[in-house]
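The following block was generated as part of the benchmark described in Methods. Ligand: iron/sulfur cluster.
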Amino acid sequence: MSKTFHITTFGCQMNEHDSEVMAGMLLEKGFEPVKERRDADVAIINTCSVRENADKRFFGTLGQLKRRKKENPDFIVCVCGCMMQQQHVIDTIKAKYPWVDIIFGTHNIHQFPELVDNALNEKKKQVEIWPDGGEIVEGLPAKRLFDCKALVNIMFGCNNFCTYCIVPYTRGRERSRRPEEIIKEVRNLVSDGVKEIMLLGQNVNSYRGDEKTDFADLLYRLNEIDGLERIRFMTSHPKDLSDKLIQAFVDCDKLCKNIHLPVQSGSSRILKRMNRKYTKDAYLELVAKLKAAVPGITMSTDIIVGFPGETEEDFEETLDLVRKVRYDSAFTFLYSIRKGTPAEKYEEQVAEDVKHERFNRLVDLINSISAEKNAQYTGRIERVLVEGASKTNSKTLSGRTDGFKLVNFEGTKDMIGNLIDVEITEGKTFSLEGRLRK
Ligand code: 5AD
Ligand code: SF4
């Protein structure tokens, strides 16, 4: 009988894609995926270290696996991802969670099948962490979550060192894949039925594939691929958003008119302390340029509330920026201290109750703008890439518009994976309702 596996993924889309690659490698070895972790012979937990609550959930999950390991000593527990690139995490696992069998990091995922073999054959703990990136390993298989859309890494790591962020320490320095490798991968995906790709990187617009290919050049080249319908990317850093990239939105018909542009704060003083390298005004100018060049572009962002030293005035600058930009949606985060980052040492940490109060005010504002913007969609025809059926009602399909709005509508299963015109009947805060055009 073949062995079974289950992957739990915390964190961002880079982690999601790493999990797809791990699943692809195990499938190639003849392992079978299972829906429930309790049914798996091999359980993998892919961790995130961006905020503290992900850490807590990880250790909670590890605790739950102790009993399973006791019942079945052949059960294999693997942990990987960003948290493993921090020595204090490895030390804690070794000391307090001895039932973990395999530990590896973000830079050596390709070694995963070998580590699983070793653990199964030698029945001994496998710990393999690489401190930094090295050569990019190409050609790893991936088991996609969706048939019609795929995540494609174009670069790894980050050189920005925002003072709150752990990523430069866990994902290492920036390394870009060669454009030929990316194009080859996308062509293969398209011949496998993929219509939409999401280009991934911590900071995609600092991509440099070779002397002739920056991020905008890569977009122009991908736009030429026959059969590919949509191109998206995330995440961009405002400091690297060039006029050339804005022009690519105008010229590349496959590039979706949507951008995720994390601002983090609306206060220039706080942005400086965050080492973001732009001011509130510079960000607003950039947004104005984008909106003028790409009419109707939808925008989302990330905002941190309660960064050390954030005053009520600073926070009001954030509210003001949100009112001016009018984001379609936004991810909001309570500042969370990360060990080893410069901001860990900053005095003037903001009190929890103040953070929460500001957080709620910000979310209320963002949601009211989202609802207003979505209401304007009523009556419009939107082209939707249908991703799947709802779990509770198989007639309800959902998919995304070019601008990344989630649309629910009634249809038939054969529409899944296709681009369909849908008439929007109602705009809600987080999604749109629609019906098929008669
Ligand atoms: N605390 C809170 N939010 C953070 N982020 C990154 N580091 C922290 C932190 N220490 C947020 C940023 C980033 C998103 C992925 O996570 O907004 O854009
Ligand atoms: Fe973290 Fe800043 Fe790099 Fe984004 S750009 S990964 S927030 S250091």
